[in-house]
Amino acid sequence: MSTPVHRIAIIGAGPGGLTCARILQQHGIPVTVHDLDASRTARDQGGTLDLHLDTGQHALRLAGLWDAFTALSRPEGEQLRLVSRDSRIMFDAEPPRDGRGNPEIDRGQLRNLLLDSLIPGTVRWGHRLTHAEPLGAGTHRLHFADGSTADADLVVGADGAWSRVRRLLSDATPAYTGVTFVETGFDRADHRHPELASLTGNGTMLALDDNRGFVAQRNSGGHIRAYVGMRTHEDWHQRRGLDLNDAVAVREALLQEFSSWSGHLLGFIAATDTGYTNRPLYALPVPHTWPHTPGVTLLGDAAHLMSPFSGMGANLAMRDGADLATALIEHPTIDDAITAYEDTLLPRSSEAAEGAAEGIDSAFAPDSANQTLAHMTQNH
Ligand SMILES: Cc1cc2nc3c(=O)[nH]c(=O)nc-3n(C[C@H](O)[C@H](O)[C@H](O)COP(=O)(O)OP(=O)(O)OC[C@H]3O[C@@H](n4cnc5c(N)ncnc54)[C@H](O)[C@@H]3O)c2cc1C
Prior knowledge:
By secondary structure, the protein is an alpha/beta fold. The protein folds into two domains: 8-74 and 105-173 and 284-363, FAD/NAD(P)-binding domain (3-Layer(bba) Sandwich), CATH 3.50.50.60; 177-282, D-Amino Acid Oxidase, Chain A, domain 2. The chain has helices at 15-26, 53-62, 66-72, 107-116, 189-192, 194-200, 236-239, 247-257, 263-270, 301-304, 313-330, 334-363, 368-379, and strands at residues 8-11, 32-34, 48-50, 80-83, 89-93, 104-106, 123-124, 129-136, 139-144, 149-152, 154-157, 175-186, 204-209, 212-218, 224-231, 277-283, 296-298. A seven-stranded mixed β-sheet has the order 5-4-13-14-15-12-16, with helices on both faces. Strands 7-2-1-11-17 form a five-stranded parallel β-sheet, covered by helices on one side. The N and C termini lie far apart (57 Å). The model has no long low-confidence stretch (mean pLDDT 95). The structure holds flavin-adenine dinucleotide (FAD). The site of flavin-adenine dinucleotide has 31 residues, from helix 1, helix 10 and helix 11.
């Protein structure tokens, strides 16, 4: 008897979906990835990530991409600094020198690394899933916005925060965390913005106090990406009658919000090269679980969207992708594989999501400078 070839469809070409696809292909298992982006270059992929030993690093080793990763990664980017609202350095943790740290990589570089490792044509770009229709016995028909359809024996929802696949399994929707980031950026920072570059250091700088703050991160190519964070209403801009496309008005509103902070830090608002992108932060309820359902499962943010204050979202997505692929390789049926995968996924992600919820609450609290200092002193 020949082994049946399953039709595996992964929705979403983020770090989780691509890791899963790569490991399946290494074992000769056919897979297709569908993504709504028109191409791999359609969208800026965002800032830098540090990959952790048991999650992101583990997944890359399993995917045979560790050496390629180390050639791109920035171990020095692990420097972590806490700055007071009057721009004094309160804490400065150098990266570990023994090579056992969590090296940083730009998200775009990581995505390209994973994409380049796949058989050409694996990712179907411009395929936005609108809904998946159960056909019985674990099979689903995928409907895409361009009118095309595809049938799959396993649908993997790797489609991020606002997952369409999740609707097959759960009614849960992401809720606003109470914190909004406004993203800004600085090109050739050492030359053009030496004060901001010096405050940021080689890695990440946090300045958090009184329910607001700045997170600045070195990216590759001399770029600094910064987030101006506020505990505020989700519709804070509407309440102020602010048009988010009006950069001058946004800058004035943010400068007003931080009027009692040091002028050095205000440079992260005033000197932007990229303008301002409003990013309210959302999280799924904790724990987020679902009844075992033949032919469909979730990974990454689709399963456990959490605030970035865990520092784990992409790491967990990659570990999920690696674990799901491993389960599919090791188990005789898709159903056995889903059961084994979900048994480890759900407890692991619940623990991380609880940590992320505590993390964002202490980072955006009235006395967050002291809370963050205590946390850093304890953990470094
Ligand atoms: C400001 C910020 C900072 C962060 N910092 C870190 C960090 O330092 N470390 C860390 O580990 N994590 C971090 N995260 C979290 C991390 O970005 C996410 O957890 C991670 O990207 C999740 O990966 P994923 O593969 O599950 O989903 P995503 O990366 O969201 O990818 C989902 C993919 O699905 C596609 N898609 C969506 N809907 C559809 C559809 N209907 N049809 C087809 N395709 C679709 C999208 O185009 C996308 O390519 C941060 C998040 C934010 C917001």
